[in-house]
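Long-time lurker. I teach an intro course on protein structure, and each term I like to show students one example going from raw sequence to a predicted 3D structure in token notation. This year I'd like something fresh instead of my usual example. Would anyone be willing to generate the tokens for the chain below so I can use it in lecture? Attribution to the forum is fine with me.
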Amino acid sequence: MARPTTDRAGPLRHFVAEKIERAELTGEVFERDPGFDIHAHARKAFGAFQNDSEFGEVIWKFKPDAAPHARTFLFHPAQILEEQSDGSLIVRFWASGHMEMCWHLYMWGDKVEVVAPEALRRMVETHQRSDFPSLP
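-- Reply from a regular --
Happy to contribute to a lecture. Here you go:
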């Protein structure tokens, strides 16, 4: 992640390492922001990408037959797991990156329900398959 030299006060931009085709030394230097906390910054995202307009509480509910497997996953560093009396599992965290969440949720088929946010629920609702033979 970096800020462009033309907009040093602007938002951080994120880059995916495998998309970088080449690098070269420019002779330019930069000053590290002493108030920047990489861990706090990373916790705002699910995976690599962040979108401030999507940031908010995320709630997923795993069906009882998928809950034991879901308990073994670290979906997000600040996740909270809530065991339900019916054997299902609720996972809560705060993040952004709905598209990246969709890619991950697709692997779980119809074994997970997106409770919140509504925008993410709408993105996955027609793509939850019941014919997956196993969990991720």
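Some talking points for your students: The mean pLDDT is 89. The helical segments are 38-42, 67-70, 98-106, 118-124.
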